[in-house]
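F.,

This is the one I mentioned.
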């Protein structure tokens, strides 16, 4: 049997990748979506998306991910669960995973981002056992306990609000004197009496024998150190692009894929969409928009370059 050459291989099953798959499948392009773990991406571990248009009152991220996945399948795209290791250049691209080598005329990279570690002493020892990167996943373990949230962006404040419904006390430490999070989140946070913020504060060291016992924090201005007794730490200090697979697409200094406004990368026939690309606003709505644009660009690329695939 001849090896299948897909019209489009989409890497990543978050909102960008799944939207791209809906568009390519509706354009009747033979589409394969490769997802590492489960569809939904970071959205799937978000309790409430309240700024995605059309869902007044918000929608649970996992629920939206499940609906999107069903839509992708209904339009006829194929989904496989595997981790991409490399993407080759050439007229026909080869996408390799540990289990297979897939071929396609176009590739859309929508592999998203992963959470950044804090990088302080003691962190490695307690990851998965006291240190978490997902409140929706782990908050129930901290019922009536004291938790620390590190970070000052949308994730830190949104997740602190979620944690406050379980924990006794939630302390946010932020390295500056002003939170980066959206104003609406900061306002909402004020209504939770069990959330407090320590500004100009960083974590220096996490200690404990079996479990976390304390975190030593310091004030970046006064250099004064103090120990905080906490049961768990939730780290939200930003994101890193999932560009660890080998490919020659041009990246910026932080590792994000550089594209033009039509989602074209530096390599013809390879497109990027969503959080993995260099851009200003990383939201579900912009990921979906990128996915749609990348799919249309892939469709045009195939139509304009038919002779390359003979
Ligand atoms: P982020 O916006 O990059 O914020 C990271 C925060 O961590 C910043 O406040 C930063 O401080 C701090 N930080 C970075 N490195 C640190 C370190 N080594 N030690 C201590 N603090 C450190 O990341 P995010 O909050 O995960 O959000 C990522 C993207 O997703 C953003 O585009 C965000 O808007 C989006 N998002 C949106 C929503 C929503 O719309 N509801 C929810 C979640 C995430 P500085 O402020 O000093 O740089």
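My design for it:
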């Amino acid at each position: 049997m001849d090896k299948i050459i897909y019209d489009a291989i989409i890497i990543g099953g978050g909102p960008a990748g799944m939207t791209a798959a809906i568009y390519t499948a509706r354009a009747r392009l033979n589409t394969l979506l490769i997802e590492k773990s489960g569809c939904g991406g970071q959205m799937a571990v978000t309790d409430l998306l309240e700024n995605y248009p059309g869902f007044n009152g918000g929608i649970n991220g996992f629920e939206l991910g499940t609906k999107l996945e069903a839509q992708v399948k209904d339009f006829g795209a194929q989904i496989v669960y595997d981790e991409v290791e490399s993407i080759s250049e050439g007229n026909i691209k080869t996408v390799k995973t540990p289990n297979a080598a897939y071929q396609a005329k176009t590739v859309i990279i929508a592999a998203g981002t992963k959470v950044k570690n804090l990088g302080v002493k003691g962190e490695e020892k307690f990851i998965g056992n006291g240190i978490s990167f997902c409140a929706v996943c782990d908050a129930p373990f901290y019922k009536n306990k004291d938790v620390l949230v590190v970070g000052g962006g949308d994730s830190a404040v949104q997740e602190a609000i979620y944690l406050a419904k379980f924990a006794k006390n939630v302390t946010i430490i932020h390295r500056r004197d002003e939170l980066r999070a959206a104003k609406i989140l900061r306002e909402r946070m004020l209504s939770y009496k069990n959330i407090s913020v320590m500004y100009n504060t960083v974590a220096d060291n996490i200690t404990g024998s079996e479990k976390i016992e304390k975190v030593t924090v310091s004030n970046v201005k006064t250099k004064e150190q103090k120990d905080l007794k906490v049961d768990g730490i939730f780290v939200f200090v930003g994101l890193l692009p999932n560009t660890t697979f080998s490919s020659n697409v041009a990246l910026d200094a932080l590792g994000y894929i550089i594209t033009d406004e039509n989602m074209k990368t530096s390599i013809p026939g390879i497109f990027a969409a969503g959080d993995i690309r260099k851009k200003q606003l990383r939201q579900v709505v912009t990921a979906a928009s990128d996915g749609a644009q990348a799919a249309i660009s892939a469709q045009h690329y195939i139509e304009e370059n038919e002779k390359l695939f003979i």
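The first helix runs from residue 15 to 26.

Talk soon.
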